[in-house]
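User: I've been trying to design a sequence by hand for this structure and keep getting stuck. Would you show me what you'd pick, starting by listing the structure so we're on the same page?

Assistant: Good idea, let's start from the same input. This is the structure you sent:
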């Protein structure tokens, strides 16, 4: 078990993870989170549903990675606060099909890290890393190899993380994953899509912006472009109009070369 380092928690302004927690009708949030959550739900009544759908889709995504693709180790990027029990954790889902599965949780929010220490890190097979994924530094092989076997396939959860990164940061993270992951790895990506509700999406971005949080709902076309380099193996989009969901695969026949992409 690796307890993560925990920095002071700021409660006087909203945090992405706690606003999401409020939108999930959970209790791990403070007045500024609830105020922003309420404003978001009023501005775009479909938004809380997409947040809930994204969280509710996690078990199926983990099952796909572990059971269908046979991947034995998962890294959850921007893991967020755990939902109230009996909602499953990523590890509990992975372990239900593969008792030896390993899971690493990554986030940069100290509140999330505090919960990771008490809830998510539940056995020797689970770890949590506090890292800012804008720079990709948290994924440097030197740090990750303490927890995972980088020679073996890794299942990456990248669910509702990219809207909080700029295009350059998101493209950098995706390209790092493409270059560093072993053949047979796969990335589950979920992103708010603005096509069906452009005005609501713009209001969301404005409200988050007023709270000091940069949120980027992207169109399907923008997301296709962001993921263009993966090309092979993209799975169908989610049925929900405001959600873009794909699983991007690292081909099993790819040869790893220094700095080489797919
Ligand atoms: C909306 S939540 C998604 C939580 C979970 N993945 C889910 O699908 O329910 C986004 C999470 O990403 C984290 N996050 C945002 N920007 C980040 C960054 N630059 N580095 C690390 N984590 C980040 C937030 O702290 C938050 O916990």
């Amino acid at each position: 078990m690796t307890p993560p380092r925990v920095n002071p928690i700021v409660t006087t302004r909203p945090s992405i993870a706690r606003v999401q927690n409020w939108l999930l009708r959970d209790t791990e949030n403070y007045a500024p989170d609830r105020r922003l959550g309420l404003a978001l739900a009023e501005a775009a009544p479909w938004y809380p549903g997409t947040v809930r759908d994204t969280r509710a889709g996690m078990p199926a995504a983990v099952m796909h990675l572990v059971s269908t693709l046979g991947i034995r180790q998962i890294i959850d990027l921007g893991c967020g606060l755990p939902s109230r029990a009996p909602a499953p954790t990523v590890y509990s889902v992975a372990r239900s099909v593969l008792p030896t599965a390993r899971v690493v949780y990554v986030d940069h929010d100290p509140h999330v890290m505090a919960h990771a220490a008490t809830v998510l890190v539940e056995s020797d097979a689970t770890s949590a890393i506090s890292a800012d994924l804008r720079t990709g530094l948290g994924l440097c092989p030197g740090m990750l190899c303490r927890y995972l076997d980088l020679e073996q396939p890794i299942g990456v959860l990248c669910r509702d993380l990219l809207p909080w990164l700029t295009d350059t940061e998101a493209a950098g993270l995706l390209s790092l994953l493409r270059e560093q992951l072993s053949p047979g790895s796969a990335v589950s990506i979920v992103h708010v899509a603005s096509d069906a509700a452009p005005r609501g999406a713009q209001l969301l971005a404005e409200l988050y912006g007023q709270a000091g949080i940069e949120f980027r709902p992207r169109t399907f076309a923008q997301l296709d472009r962001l993921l263009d380099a993966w090309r092979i193996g993209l799975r169908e989009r989610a049925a929900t109009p405001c959600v873009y969901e794909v699983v991007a695969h690292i081909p099993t026949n790819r040869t790893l070369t220094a700095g080489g992409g797919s």
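That's my pick for every position. To get oriented when you compare it with your attempt: Residues 257-262 have pLDDT under 50 and may be disordered. The chain has one domain: 16-249.
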